[in-house]
Specification:
Layout: H1 2-36, E1 41-42, E2 45-46, E3 53-57, E4 62-65, E5 70-72, E6 75-78, E7 83-88, E8 91-92, E9 101-103, E10 109-111, E11 125-133, E12 137-149, E13 154-156, E14 161-164, E15 169-171, E16 174-175, E17 183-187, E18 190-191, E19 198-200, E20 206-208, E21 217-223, E22 230-231, E23 235-240, E24 247-253, E25 258-261, E26 266-268, E27 271-275, E28 279-284, E29 287-288, E30 297-299, E31 305-307, E32 316-323, E33 328-345, E34 350-353, E35 358-360, E36 363-367, E37 371-376, E38 379-380, E39 387-390, E40 394-397, E41 406-413, E42 418-428, E43 463-470, E44 475-480, E45 492-499, E46 506-509, E47 517-520, E48 528-537, E49 540-544, E50 548-551, E51 566-571, E52 574-578, E53 591-598, E54 604-609, E55 613-616, E56 624-633, E57 636-637, E58 644-647, E59 658-664, E60 670-675, H2 679-682, E61 688-695, E62 702-708, E63 713-716, E64 724-733, E65 736-740, E66 744-747, E67 762-769, E68 774-781, E69 790-797, E70 803-808, E71 813-816, E72 824-832, E73 841-846, E74 878-884, E75 890-895, E76 910-917, E77 926-930, E78 934-937, ...
Parallel strand pairs: 4-12, 14-23, 25-33, 34-42
Antiparallel strand pairs: 1-2, 3-6, 5-10, 7-8, 7-11, 9-10, 11-12, 13-16, 15-20, 17-18, 17-21, 19-20, 21-22, 21-23, 24-27, 26-31, 28-29, 28-32, 30-31, 32-33, 33-36, 35-40, 37-38, 37-41, 39-40, 41-42, 43-44, 44-47, 45-46, 45-48, 48-49, 48-50, 51-52, 52-55, 53-54, 53-56, 56-57, 56-58, 59-60, 60-63, ...
């Protein structure tokens, strides 16, 4: 038994060692196979292993010097060795024919001689290393930036200064940021050694703290960047002894906000000066910093703070506090810490079979939040139905095919840098089992449980494959076992399916052997799918079943909207959205999809969320976003929620103001103009602007001005004459100050130039025509003492007024583009300033024909023109888009394929944007240049379609115009009223009128209606007018039930979708009279009815015309015929003869005493009578005409003198002459002078009667014999003839020459002359020249008992009522100088009537003699006045 046990033990031991030897042999053979490059063999098939392929060294950002050598390191590991190539700005470099750049053996790129100039920068850019292994794949490295240090230039230089012992001083030496490492200082031409007291800031500035006498001397800074050293100005620093007096505490250098990357160092400068010497301490977020015990915080010379190895915790606000015991000052700065992208989870290698679904996982972090893109074998992966980005950064590949095999890389990038991580995908044959357990990157539906295949029979195709259940998003398939294996207990199945028409196939495996059904999920509703089933046994996969075509059902049973969705901003770049579970879930909610979109765009983004809240990062600052949530269940997406909008927090502007320009006003002031930063970079409401300026010679002395509100200009005064100044502007929000513009220079005038007159003509003008353009050059005016603010260039075919372009006063040439070939253009040039434009200078030119090939794009003014061959054109911009911002503004954006992928412009190229509208058809293009990939086009017309195109120019190379983009500006309220407003009466309906009009010339949109306002008072408030709305675009409207014979005023206002436009001017219309044809005729004759007429400017005192019946005189339609007029004339003549005879009888019977009384009466200057029964009621004014009381009144003149009025000047009834009160006089004259059309055919009597005017009296004395007109007053006495002779000879009756004077005045009216007349207000019936009377209340009647003789003809004088005119008065053929005349007012009608009655009943011959004596005295006084 013991021997047997020993034998068994020996046998088992030998078996153990035999197994060990076999295992070692297998491992050795496998390792040898791996080294030889062939995969190890497994029973029945081969399995390829993952090949190590990665970068050992990747390129990093490099700073190089012009003319020196540079190297970008790169090394990759693989078996076999990979092939290394390099890309620059996304394009492969051809290193074979490049004599400056060569590939080193390890794969690094070596540049032997870095080339860099202002216009040629071939080496600066973004580089990427590409490693390729044939039949394996390609990987790319991170992107590295090569920066070439520019030429040494000093943006500020040291200036002479002084410092007290123990105090601090700074010497500026600011250079380009890339040259700061090459800056050093010299003291008295010796290198300056830096220590605890002497420190150089990152900007190059030298700080000297605790100054000693040894610090005095000469200082200069030197830039040594490979070439000859660049020296700054050498300045002296004086060290002064302590004066034992105090001085104000000031900052010599204040900290400024910094952005640093984790691991870098940050220096916050802070230097203060004052007496006593101040001490510096620092605080962060209101907590004191301990710089003595900290290893990372160091206090440098002068008080600056250095933070080494920056971490995220170092971010915050830092306060520098200077204190010298007497006072304390502080300054603050923000430190922002950023982090490069870093992988939290990298992609892993994956084995898979065709038709499977896989997911590459990738999680990254960084600040700002990195963006992730995927690359397969060096090419970008474009998301599609089968390549999807899930869970923000993961890549999902559905339905694998053989071509999907290769290397996949996850590339993360932010503003700080970029990083990459990769993994390999190997697709095995279906008969090869996946060698390990299913990795987490394989979906459960595609897990393959095949055991190692053995040799044997394969199963046949499954039978009777049918779709037993078809829904909207899933299909259940069933089948029977293959005929070769009826039991099928050890058979598994794979279902392959694809969309109809798609070659990529996906697979779903059964969960356990023998199962003959499977459910395919995540399908699309109403979509046709092709299915086939394949069986597998232990020997491998068998035959495939015949394809089965199935169409899914339409969508049903979906979740409802998620309730209580809320969104709120958490930072300037992030928003958090929360919601709750839908009330009508229709099944278990699987996940949610959160959609969000920036307001004003149509690009919606989405993210998958499994919880009830999510935070969206990386949003734009101060931008409004809309959010909605869709719940998913097993059937698919449900009903979306309503959009909720929220705006991110504001922040400081991220861009500087635009279009900064300077205008030199005079020798002491400059106006600075700017435009706000681009809207997308304002990051909030702009609250103001900070303007900083300095002398160009003293760049450290900066003055700051704060401009509040939205003001876009600032006048800087108090400047020095003939001095150059630098200006820059930064925008402000409530969060702080944004970046400033570049410094812009302008020089004040040496002396104040003259701007009280326009500039003189330019001294020369030259034109050079090309095919479609003309080059214009000129020289300024010879007189340089007049301000020139610019030049206006006008041009056009045959006339220079078609187009006008204004250019800056510094410009001396301009190219007029987009002209027609073989056309004759006239060009004018004018200099202008704020006063106006000067004298133009003209030239003409004929553009060349199309066949002329001598046109060149490159020209030099005042140089001989040399034809230059056309360079190779550039590619035009692509993706031109027009974004409408307002009614007059459109933003144009585009992309440039000749730029790197990040679309950053690093060269001197510029873009030209042109635009036009097709209405009218011959509209010219307008152009503008831009140096960015967008341009803001302003000054457009509302509701107008514009087309835009862009071209790029780089040096002499230009592209063709891009494809056009179109945009229609938003509508605006109408800016002009409806035009051609007319009002007419409707035929047969006098109470109905029709208003017609035309649309406004500037509708600014589709007219949706009109509003008609009408009123009887043109001066009424607009809310008191009656309103008639008109819907639509009708251009006519009826208004009914108006009052007859009433003036109406009409205004019309147009409206569109944006609001109401301005009102039209008031149009007057008087409704017709419907009583009789006579009234209609009279109204039409006076212009009171008919077509509506536009009102002139009537003034605020205008009153509508008073209605009244017209006098029968002075109108051609008067019913009084010529026979009646003849009878009246004869009657008046007879009465006049009788009066003359009676006066002659009285004159012959006068005695000597009577003659004496007459003389005494004639010499009296004032005669008055008391009337019986009227002394209390009537107080007639003095009838004598005195020199100091003379007044001239203007006479109205009708456009067409009435022949009846001229021939028959005597009024026919008492209504013709009507006194009026003084209050109406001015109004009547004003109305008649400003609006004479209504009385063009009225006589004087008609106007006086109808409008209540006071009659006007004209006193012309001509050379013709007098015809004495005496009132018919009853008397029984006769006078001697001698008395009559004396009376008639010595005293000219002013009424004597009535007929002849009217004849003369009629002739004067025909010749267009104006004869001034005097208004005489009579007081006594015998002492006045005419007695006016007021018409009685009843109808007008003819009263022969009260004759009157008006002594004027109607003439119109277009002068103000108060202007003084002169009346030309003459006697007996002798002309007299003009004399102003003042006339008293007339008494009331009742008083005048009673006067006449009293005079008829009580006057005796003696009293009549006295009256005649008074009359004679009156005329003598009048002769004396006119003779003087």
């Amino acid at each position: 038994m013991a021997a047997e046990r020993r034998a068994r033990r020996l046998l088992s031991t030998s078996s153990f060692w035999l197994c060990c030897l076999l295992l070692l042999e297998r491992r050795a053979s496998g390792a040898a196979a791996a080294r030889s490059g062939s995969p190890p063999q497994s029973p029945g098939s081969s399995i390829r292993t993952f090949t190590p392929f990665y970068f050992l060294v990747e390129p990093v950002d490099t700073l190089s010097i012009r003319g020196s050598s540079g190297i970008l390191n790169c090394s990759a590991y693989s078996e076999p060795s990979p092939k290394i190539e390099w890309k620059k700005d996304g394009t492969f470099l051809n290193l074979v024919s490049d004599d400056r750049r060569q590939l080193l053996p390890d794969g690094s790129l070596f540049i032997s001689n870095v080339v860099h100039s202002k216009h040629n920068k071939p080496d600066e850019g973004y580089y990427q290393c590409v490693a390729t292994v044939e039949s394996l794949g390609t990987i790319v490295s991170r992107t590295a930036k090569l920066t070439v240090a520019g030429l040494p230039r000093f943006s500020s230089q040291p200036e002479p200064s002084s410092v007290y012992v123990g105090n601090s001083a700074i010497l500026n030496c600011e250079v380009n940021a890339d040259l700061v490492p090459f800056v050093r200082w010299e003291h008295n031409r010796q290198p300056l050694l830096l220590d605890d007291r002497l420190n150089k800031l990152p900007s190059g500035t030298l700080v000297i703290s605790n100054a000693t006498e040894g610090d005095g001397g000469l200082y200069r800074c030197i830039v040594e960047s490979g070439g000859p050293p660049k020296y700054s100005d050498e300045v002296e620093l004086k060290v002064l002894p302590d004066p034992d007096v105090t001085s104000n505490l000031v900052f010599l250098k204040q900290p400024s906000s910094l952005v640093r990357v984790i691991g870098q160092s940050a220096v916050l400068p802070c230097v203060a000066s004052g007496l006593p010497t101040p001490t510096i301490r620092w605080m962060k977020n209101e907590e004191a910093l301990d710089t003595e015990s900290s290893e990372r915080l160091v206090l440098l010379a002068g008080g600056s703070l250095e933070i080494s190895d920056v971490t995220e915790d170092d971010a915050g606000t830092y306060f520098c506090i200077a204190d010298n015991g007497n006072e304390t000052i502080e300054a603050q700065a923000e430190l922002t810490v950023q982090a490069q992208p870093e992988f939290l989870k990298q992609p892993t290698n994956i084995y898979a079979h065709e038709s499977m679904d896989i997911v590459f996982e990738c999680e990254v972090t960084g600040k700002p939040t990195p963006t992730v893109k995927w690359v397969k074998n060096g090419d970008m992966v474009i998301p599609s139905d089968y390549f999807k980005i899930v869970k923000e950064h993961n890549l999902q590949v559905l339905g694998l095919v053989k071509s999907d095999e290769g290397f996949y890389q996850c590339i993360a990038e932010n503003d700080v840098g970029n990083a990459q991580a990769g993994a390999q995908l190997i697709i095995l044959e279906h008969d090869v089992a996946i060698p390990t357990l299913p990795p987490t990157s394989l979906t459960s539906a595609t897990t393959d449980h095949l055991a190692p295949a053995t040799t044997g029979p394969l199963p046949s195709a499954p039978r009777d494959v049918v779709a037993s259940l078809v829904s909207t998003r899933f299909i259940k398939l069933t089948w029977r076992t293959p005929a070769s294996d009826p039991h099928g207990d050890n058979v598994t199945y794979s279902v392959f399916y694809t969309k109809e028409g798609i070659a990529r196939e996906r697979v779903e495996n059964t969960s356990r052997p023998g199962e003959m059904q499977v459910t395919i999920q995540n399908l699309m509703p109403a979509t046709v799918y092709i299915f086939r089933v394949m069986a597998q046994n232990k020997h491998g996969s068998g035959e495939s079943s015949a394809p089965l075509r199935v169409e899914t059902q339409p969508e049903v049973q979906l979740p409802g909207p998620a309730p209580n969705i809320r969104a709120y901003a958490t930072s300037p770049t992030s928003i958090t959205v929360t919601w709750e579970t839908p009330l009508s879930g229709n099944g278990e909610i699987q996940n949610y999809k959160l959609y969000y979109m920036e307001k004003g765009t149509d690009k919606e983004q989405d993210v998958d969320v499994s919880s009830h809240s999510h935070t969206i990062n990386g949003l734009k600052k101060y931008t409004e976003y809309s959010f909605r949530v869709v719940a998913y269940n097993k059937h698919g997406p449900g009903v979306s929620t309503q959009d909720v909008a929220v705006r991110t927090f504001s922040d400081v502007p991220s861009a500087a103001p635009q279009n900064l320009s300077l205008e030199v006003r005079n020798s002491k002031s400059i106006v600075i103009h700017w435009q706000p930063p681009p809207l997308a970079t304002q990051n909030g409401q702009i609250t103001g602007y900070k303007v900083r300026y300095r002398k160009a010679s003293r760049k450290s002395d900066v003055t700051e001005t704060l401009v509040t509100g939205t003001q876009l200009s600032q006048l800087i005064e108090g400047l020095d004459r003939g001095t150059e100044y630098n200006f820059r502007v930064a925008a402000l929000t409530i969060n702080g100050t944004g970046p400033a513009t570049d410094w812009l220079s302008a020089e004040t005038f040496e002396s104040d130039l003259d701007e009280t007159r326009v500039p003189e003509v330019p001294s020369s003008l030259h034109v050079r025509p090309l095919v479609t353009s003309i080059v214009v050059s000129w020289t300024p005016p010879e007189n340089q003492n007049i301000v020139v603010r610019g030049y206006a260039i006008g041009y056009g075919i045959g006339s220079p007024h078609a187009q006008t372009i204004k250019v800056d006063y510094k410009q001396r040439y301009y190219t007029i583009e987009n002209l027609d070939p073989s056309s004759h253009y006239v060009i004018t040039l004018k200099a202008f300033n704020n006063v106006g434009e000067g004298i133009p200078l003209y030239e003409s030119a004929v553009t060349r024909p199309h066949t002329d090939t001598s046109e060149v794009d490159l020209f030099v003014i005042n140089a001989p023109y040399t034809p230059v061959p056309d360079p190779t054109p550039m590619m035009p911009p692509v993706g031109v888009q027009a974004s409408i911002l307002s009614h007059d503004t459109i933003r144009i954006t585009w992309a440039d394929n000749s730029l790197p992928k990040h679309q950053k412009i690093t060269d001197s190229r510029y873009y030209t944007v042109r635009w036009k509208t097709n209405i009218p058809a011959n509209t010219k293009y307008k152009n503008a240049n831009a140096t960015t990939l967008s341009y803001l086009v302003t000054g457009l017309k509302p509701n107008t379609l514009y087309e835009f195109s862009v071209m790029v120019t780089k040096g002499r190379r230009s592209s063709t115009w891009s494809m056009t983009a179109h945009g229609t500006t938003f509508e605006l309220v109408p800016t002009s009223p409806p035009k051609d407003v007319t009002v007419v009466s409707k035929e047969g309906k006098p109470r109905t009128i029709i208003v017609n009009w035309q649309p406004p010339s500037e509708a600014n949109g589709k007219i949706t209606g009109y509003i008609i306002y009408y009123s009887t008072d043109v001066n009424a408030e607009i809310h008191d007018w009656v309103i008639e709305p008109v819907v639509g675009n009708r251009l006519t409207h009826q208004i009914q039930e108006l009052t007859l014979d009433t003036p109406y005023y009409f205004k019309i206002q147009a409206r569109n979708s944006k609001g109401m436009g301005p009102m039209s001017e008031a149009v007057q219309f008087r409704t017709p009279k419907a009583d009789s044809s006579d009234k209609m005729a009279n109204d039409q004759a006076s212009g009171s009815a008919g077509k509506g007429s536009r009102l002139p400017d009537l003034g605020s005192d205008y009153k509508p015309p008073m209605s009244g019946s017209n006098s029968p005189h002075g109108s051609p339609t008067s019913p009084l015929d010529s026979n009646m007029l003849l009878v009246i004339i004869v009657s008046v003549g007879v009465i006049t003869i009788v009066v003359v005879v009676i006066i002659a009888v009285f004159c012959t019977r006068r005695t000597t005493s009577h003659q004496k009384k007459k003389r005494a009466a004639c010499k009296s200057v004032n005669g008055s009578h008391k009337y019986k029964g009227n002394s209390k009621d009537v107080k007639p004014p003095d009838l004598w005409i005195h020199h100091e009381r003379l007044e001239l009144k203007p006479i109205d003149k009708s456009p067409d003198p009435n022949p009846i009025m001229t021939d028959t000047p005597i009024p026919r009834n008492s209504q013709d002459i009507t006194p009026v009160d003084n209050s109406m006089d001015s109004n009547i004259h004003q109305r008649r002078n400003s609006y004479r059309g209504h009385e063009s055919e009225d006589s004087m009597s008609t106007l006086a009667g109808r409008r209540g005017m006071r009659p006007k009296m004209m006193m012309p004395f001509d050379s013709q014999p007098p015809q004495q007109s005496v009132r018919n007053t009853p008397s029984t006495d006769t006078m001697p003839a001698s008395s009559s002779q004396t009376c008639c000879t010595d005293h000219q009756d002013p009424e004597g020459a009535t007929s002849s004077s009217y004849l003369a005045s009629s002739q004067e009216e025909d010749s267009g002359q104006s004869l001034p007349t005097a208004h005489v207000r009579p007081s006594h019936p015998l002492k006045s020249f005419a007695v006016p009377a007021i018409p009685p209340p009843g109808p007008p009647t003819y009263d022969p008992a009260l004759p009157s003789t008006p002594l004027l003809s109607q003439q119109a004088l277009n002068h103000h009522i108060h202007s003084v005119k002169t009346a030309s008065i003459g006697t007996l053929g002798r002309s007299r100088p003009p004399m102003p005349v003042v006339v008293p007012s007339a008494p009331e009608v009742q008083e005048t009537t009673r006067m006449l009655e009293d005079s008829e009943s009580s006057y005796e011959p003696d009293e009549l003699t006295k009256e005649m004596a008074h009359l004679e005295g009156l005329m003598k006084d009048l002769n004396a006045i006119t003779t003087a």
